[in-house]
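Mods, move this if it's the wrong board.
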Amino acid sequence: MYERIYYKLIKERIEEPRKFIQVVTGPRQVGKTTVVKQVLKTLKTPWLMFSADEVPTAQREWIANCWESARAKLRAEQVESVVWVIDEVQKIKGWSEVVKKMWDEDSFHDTPVKVILLGSSRVLQERDMADSLMGRFETIKKPHWSFFEMEEAFNFSLEQYIYYGGYPGAAGLIGNESRWAEYIRSAIIDATINKDVLTDAVVNKPALLRQTFELAAAYSGEIVSLTKMIGQLQDAGNTTTLSSYLQLLQDIGLVCGLQKYSPDGLRRRASIPKYQVYNNALKSIYCGATFHEAMKDRKLWGRLFESAVGCHIVNTAFTSGIHPYYWRDGNDEVDYVMRDGSKVVGIEVKSSMEKYNKGLARFREQFNPTSAFVVGYEGYPVVGFLTADLRDFLKLTQDARQPGV
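Not the wrong board. Structure tokens:
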């Protein structure tokens, strides 16, 4: 079974003396549970694993009962420590208060129960943890699968990754595109929206939330105002509602709205968003074309190509300290901008012999970035970019740029 880089990190953390609660978080269907099970099977330490997925949300005592099982196992087997794992912990309302109480009791009595919490809903977990578990946890963020991982694990070609994206559970279904699309809709989109949003957040118009996602996913890689979005949605309400729904969709790792890059924070927040999915499968199922049809359609393939590059950028942003943006001034545009502190990188994406865009030159003149370059045709190879650690590009200096950058 393929081991992502997070396998080693989780194993190292759990083999350390008991220090912190380990929280493994990220979108649905990226293999959080799988990698933790892989680690558990290699441990000499006894372990217990529970799932809150089907537990009524009000049963806070269920967590305490499961924790007591770990304490009982520790006493009965007289071992040095026990690993206790709970999956989908955010489903239980008030879970963080119970975890805090049990963890603090074990800390006071020197009870060596090591804890791993898993959850699909990123920000909902983080909000609860910030309120109740400050100083008691470490977070391990698992993003969507990269091209490098899909190539290694499933022998995906670049073209397959651009169209089918990076969901490991769907990799074996690409030979039957209707079956693959149904999996993406039901196991990922429906499950994520229904279980990770509608059960945890106040959404007055669930149908509008779904429509917002579908339209934003279809427009991934494009700049579209919220006002224009409203014109294409039924019962859309106002831009404030759409903006709040986009934030929810970003929090659960489906799609985000990138802001226009500007040193002025107020201008960034007031900008028209550029929509970007976190996994290109979410765009492809709304493109209206099969894999082979999309490859033959130069304009459509260009949009998919650009969106795939954007996926790599926003997933890197999820696990690191970089901030993703786009930039546009009149007809001049830079597809993606990455910022880390004072370091800024501009990226223009070209899938074919498109006409020259002077946006990069304007961007260099206006912002004097660390680097600004083309990815794709006559630029930095897209395979190299999609397999690179993007933080390395932000380490370059003005006087020490990579060749061709």
